[in-house]
Every structure is written in structure tokens, then in C-alpha cells.
DNA sequence: TTGATTGTTACCGG
DNA sequence: TCCGGTAACAATCA
């Protein structure tokens, strides 16, 4: 489920619901390491996203670090408490709402130095105002690795996942196997700005939407993409190829995204 | 039961 | 040192 937009959306939402409140924190299906620092009954001082990592800040310099991985899910519901559904590893209980965190890849309490170590290894996040895009360009411009690998490398730039990778490169007519150092600054800036725009739409609509024409109206918002998982290129009607980069499927149109 | 999946990390060899 | 490949882990659904 989670690319960067999911996590940023949760951070913005959970901040409203939990920040400034003393939380009950439990682990119905135990996931905290034995001897982990306790955060239940502490004041939640903020919620923040760094790429796909979600950080709940608490008093005493402690924070809860969540990474949903491929399968994890967040579920918010109103009090009163209901039975946890599925593999709930952490349950955050505020004055009016409950956040259940199902099947996260990472779920740990960090102190300040540990949080610094974590954030230091996460690249500039396209959805963060403080992101330093020059840092991302610096890495990309020096690498011969395919751009399809680099933009999904969270230490190069954070937030893009497998679907956005395919969609962004198609929108910019960049072949996924293009070496990073072949991109000029203009290409990179367009790529960065398209990532920001698409992920912001994702946050707003709570769904991956990369097509230009999104039907208005109140219909249920489902995922709308151009070529991810498709057979026919919507632009040229040609064949969509499916290849692999970094062990994940990437789709491309050889006609619209010519190799360099 | 099998396979696939909007993710990450550790480890190994070139 | 860097880079690419592989395995492992996570949970759910068709």
C-alpha cells in the first residue's frame, strides 16, 4: 500500500488527532523488542514523515518509528475501541481516535541519537519543504546506475515507490535504463517537480493518480495510472514492455521513452 | 496451496 | 569502494 504519499497523508492526519495528547500505546500482537523504552502514557508532541518512514514524537526525546514495508497498513477509527483486526502490532489510543498499525516492517522506539541516525540516511524527501534537491541531483549526476533504480533508492531521494517510478519516467519520456549521469539538470528538475506534483495529488486524493484527466464527481477514488501494469501505451497505442530494475517490475514504452 | 505485491536490508562476489 | 544480484522478512488476497 504505501508509497510516500500514504505516509505523509497519515502524518498530517494523525498530527491533528494525536499531537498534544497523552496516548495509550499497546501492542496487541507484540512487536516491540523486549526491554524497549516505554511510550505509553506519554505526551505525543508531533507526527512527522521522512520519505516512507513515519515518526511519532513523544516526551523525553522518544519517538515511535514505523515503516510499513510492502504490506503494512494504518487504520484510524473513532472510539470506542473495537477488536483489533488482523496483525495489529501497535495501537495508539488518543482522546477520540485509535490508530491501528498492521504488519509494519519496522516498529521501534528510538531515542534522539537513534532518530538522528535514521533521518541521516534518508535522502531528500520530495514531499518535505526542507528537502535539498541538489543533494539528489549530485548523486544522480555522478552515477551510471539506471535512473529507474536511482529515483526509487530512498537514500538518493525519498518518497517514490514502484508505481510512481514507472509513471514519472513515462510522463517525462525518460527511458528507465538511462544512466543517471546522462540526465542534465533540466531533466532532473522536471523529474523532481513531477514527483512532488504527483505525490501531493496522492496525499490529497488518498490514491495514486498520474493521469491528466481525472474524472470529476464523487465517485470512489480508485487508482488511475498511465502504463503501470498495462499492455498498451495510452499515448502512442504501442506495446508496453515489462522489465525489472532493482527486483521490481518497471513498465515502459520504447517508442515514447527512447533509450539514449 | 501458490503466487503476487505501492518495501527494505544484509550479505556476497565481481 | 561501488554496484548488482539474491535471499529474507512482513501480511493479505485471489
Cα separation of the termini: 33 Å
Element pattern in H and E: HEEEEEEEEHHHHHEE
Task: Tell me the fraction of residues in β-strands, as a range.
Answer: 15-25%
CATH topology of the largest domain: Helicase, Ruva Protein, domain 3
> Mind telling me the CATH class of the largest domain?
Mainly Alpha
Number of domains: 2
Structural class: alpha+beta
Query: How many helices does DSSP assign?
Result: 6
Pick out the low-confidence regions. Answer: none
CATH architecture of the largest domain: Orthogonal Bundle
Question: What integer value in Å does the Rg equal?
Answer: 20 Å
What kind of sheet is the major sheet?
Answer: 4 strands, antiparallel
Shape: elongated
Helix content: 25-40%
Oligomer: single chain
Mean pLDDT: 92
What does this structure look like?
- With 260 residues, the chain is α+β, with helices and mostly antiparallel strands.
- It folds into 2 domains: 4-120, N-terminal domain of MutM-like DNA repair proteins, CATH 3.20.190.10; 133-252, Helicase, Ruva Protein, domain 3 (Orthogonal Bundle), CATH 1.10.8.
- The chain is built from 6 helices and 10 strands, in the order H-E-E-E-E-E-E-E-E-H-H-H-H-H-E-E.
- The strands form 3 sheets. The protein has a 4-stranded antiparallel β-sheet, with helices on one face.
- It starts with a helix and ends in an 8-residue tail after the last strand.
- It binds a DNA duplex (14 and 14 nucleotides) through helix 5.
